[in-house]
Amino acid sequence: MPRSRSLAAAVALLSTSLVGGSAAATELTPANSILFAFGSRNTETITGTDCGTTATLVKSLPAGSVGIEVVEPQVGDRDTLGSGTRVTAVTIAGTDVTISVLADGPSICDPSRTGVPPGEPVDWMADYVVHIEHKRRVQATMRVFYESYVFGAKWKLRPRVIRDTRAGGPPGVRVTGIRWKRFGGKTAVGFGTLRLDYCRRDDNCPQNGKRIRLVARKPDYCKDSGKIEYLRLAGYVGGMLHFGARITCSP
């Protein structure tokens, strides 16, 4: 996925729970999860008192975060107004990022600029754009109503039933009683029973009721749903491809 989409995913997901992202009761491994890139970029305010003092901002990332990189700010950068503070240290310890800034600019240190009487404390605040990227393991989820549009869709981990039409739509193809051999990682494989709801009693539908193997691939962030989900799903009956479904997400 392009970096811009990865960052967009993170902005949407860092502030909320990942649906199908990670389950507290499930140990995430390379077999049942993917190592996904996240990022956040927002403006943070750091406060302090008096010229020559140092203040810090601590950003705690979710447990399991690895490959942490602070893109902004860098040591030496000044606050967004550029006249009050500068960054003196950016440190990473575990999943905590600490940004230290020193009040050394004229808007804080020059009495003619502060308007504060001599001897009185000078309270200050400084804004910085904070851009942090990291990776962590998450589980992909799957649309229960498997289509390229979001309306009517639902998402589950290891769904027992899926169908190719949205809720309330006309009868179509269903797969029931699904048992997943693996799920949540780069590829999900499961087995269920194919149900062709459009078949009537006297129709010739030899594949109706047959065992079907499901293979889901390409877990990725979908901007339309705001979820990390499988974007490809194929069903095989007797080793032959019966259907292939594709999720199309907005760029």
Topology, element by element:
Blueprint: H1 3-14, E1 34-49, E2 54-60, E3 66-72, E4 85-93, E5 96-103, H2 106-109, H3 111-114, E6 123-138, E7 142-143, E8 155-156, E9 162-163, E10 173-182, E11 188-196, E12 211-222, E13 227-237, E14 240-246
Antiparallel strand pairs: 1-6, 2-5, 3-6, 4-5, 7-8, 9-10, 10-11, 11-12, 12-13, 13-14
Oligomeric assembly? single chain
Strands across the major sheet, in which order? Answer: 9-10-11-12-13-14
Can you give the mean pLDDT?
Answer: 86
Helix content: under 10%
How many DSSP helices?
Answer: 3
The Cα radius of gyration reads 26 Å
The number of strands is: 14
Number of domains: 2
Distance between the termini: 10 Å
- Biggest sheet features: 6 strands, antiparallel
Which structural class fits the helix and strand makeup?
mainly beta
- Spatial shape: elongated
- Please mark out the parts with pLDDT under 50 across 5 or more consecutive residues, or reply none: 1-24
Strand content: over 45%
Can you write the helix and strand succession as a string?
HEEEEEHHEEEEEEEEE
Provide a compact summary of the structure:
The chain is mostly beta strands. It has helices at residues 3-14, 106-109, 111-114; strands at residues 34-49, 54-60, 66-72, 85-93, 96-103, 123-138, 142-143, 155-156, 162-163, 173-182, 188-196, 211-222, 227-237, 240-246.
Structure description:
- The protein has 251 residues and is mainly beta.
- It folds into two domains: 43-137, no CATH class; 139-246, no CATH class.
- The chain is 8% helix and 47% strand.
- It is built from three helices and 14 strands.
- It has helices spanning 3-14, 106-109, 111-114; strands at residues 34-49, 54-60, 66-72, 85-93, 96-103, 123-138, 142-143, 155-156, 162-163, 173-182, 188-196, 211-222, 227-237, 240-246.
- The strands form four sheets. It has a six-stranded antiparallel β-sheet with strand order 9-10-11-12-13-14. It has a three-stranded antiparallel β-sheet with strand order 1-6-3. It has a three-stranded antiparallel β-sheet with strand order 2-5-4, with no helix packed on it.
- The protein starts with a helix and ends in a 5-residue tail after the last strand.
- Residues 1-24 have low confidence and may be disordered.
